[in-house]
């Protein structure tokens, strides 16, 4: 069984506690042992904070990486944003000696040092590279046969691809292969690589944000999907809660609602959990599903 230090991030414990719980309960059943670590801070945010104060952003990420190095464990996260920050920081500090020395000078004030001895991976990367999707297929107990699921990988899992090296950012297929490994039918659709729109929401562009949500949901529904799945808490919230807010501007969303399931929720269902077990009732969009 692979052992990883669980980087929960901020959003999942605060807004999606069922996702955190399911990860700790279900992932060991497919060969992923998670070790909790209370000393971690925010990753921090790969968009706003990186742009506002790059040195602070990098030093904070380096502190988190140093904590994992002290434990001698690679990091696993369920958050695209956390992956993006920590993986990019890890890469930059490993490649740039001058930058590493400058950041370590800051870390020395709290008794930490970045050495570059661990890796950072998203759950989907672990399933692809460490567990292997064929092995995952053999581990599931209740294949999701008959379900048509569209996957939304999300921007921060795909780019920058020269660092993350997860999938082709212009034509991603790994999330579809993950869906197929669980026994469901993966649904391809035109706007698969489009952003969820959260960056527009962060800068107050409500119109652009709602348009992003509308485009994605209508596209997924038109392609015949019953469920939209993602492995990013920001994307999840955008598409779950966002369908409600965007429907005030786009009335057709009221008639075309689609449930959003987190990647680890799909795994839990394929391991025999029920909709009640995964906390489906806590979702904002929750039409009846037959699983």
TrEMBL record:
Protein's name in the database: Cysteine-rich domain-containing protein
Organism annotation: marine sediment metagenome
Gene3D superfamilies recorded: 1.20.1050.140, 3.40.50.11810
UniProt-listed InterPro entries: Cys_rich_dom, HdrB/HdrD_reductase
PANTHER family given in the database record: COB--COM HETERODISULFIDE REDUCTASE SUBUNIT B 1 (PTHR42947)
Keyword terms: Oxidoreductase
GO MF, any single term: oxidoreductase activity
Pfam families to which the protein is assigned, alphabetical: CCG (PF02754)
Positions of the Cysteine-rich domain: 4-86, 150-240
């Amino acid at each position: 069984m692979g052992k990883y230090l669980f980087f929960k991030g901020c959003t999942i414990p605060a807004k999606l506690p069922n996702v955190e719980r399911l990860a700790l309960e279900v992932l060991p059943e497919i060969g992923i042992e998670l070790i909790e670590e209370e000393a971690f801070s925010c990753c921090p945010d790969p968009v706003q904070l990186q742009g506002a104060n790059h040195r602070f952003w990098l030093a904070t990420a380096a502190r988190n990486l140093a904590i994992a190095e002290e434990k001698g464990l690679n990091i696993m996260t369920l958050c695209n944003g956390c992956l993006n920050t920590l993986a990019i920081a890890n890469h930059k500090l490993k490649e740039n000696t001058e930058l590493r020395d400058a950041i370590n000078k800051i870390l020395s004030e709290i008794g930490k040092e970045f050495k570059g001895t661990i890796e950072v991976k998203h759950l989907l990367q672990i399933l692809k590279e460490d567990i292997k999707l064929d092995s995952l297929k053999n581990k599931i107990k209740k294949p999701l046969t008959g379900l048509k699921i569209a996957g939304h990988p999300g921007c921060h899992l795909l780019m920058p691809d020269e660092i993350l090296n997860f999938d082709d950012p212009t034509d991603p297929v790994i999330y579809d292969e993950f869906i197929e490994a669980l026994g469901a039918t993966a649904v391809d659709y035109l706007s698969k690589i489009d952003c969820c729109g959260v960056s527009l929401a962060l800068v107050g562009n409500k119109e652009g944000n709602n348009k992003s949500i509308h485009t994605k949901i209508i596209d997924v529904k038109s392609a015949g999907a019953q469920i939209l799945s993602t492995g990013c808490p920001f994307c999840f919230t955008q598409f779950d809660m966002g369908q409600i807010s965007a429907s005030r501007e786009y009335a057709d969303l009221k008639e075309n609602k689609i449930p959003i399931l987190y990647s680890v929720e799909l795994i839990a269902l394929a391991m025999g959990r029920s909709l009640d077990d995964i906390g489906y009732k806590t979702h904002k969009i929750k039409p009846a599903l037959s699983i």
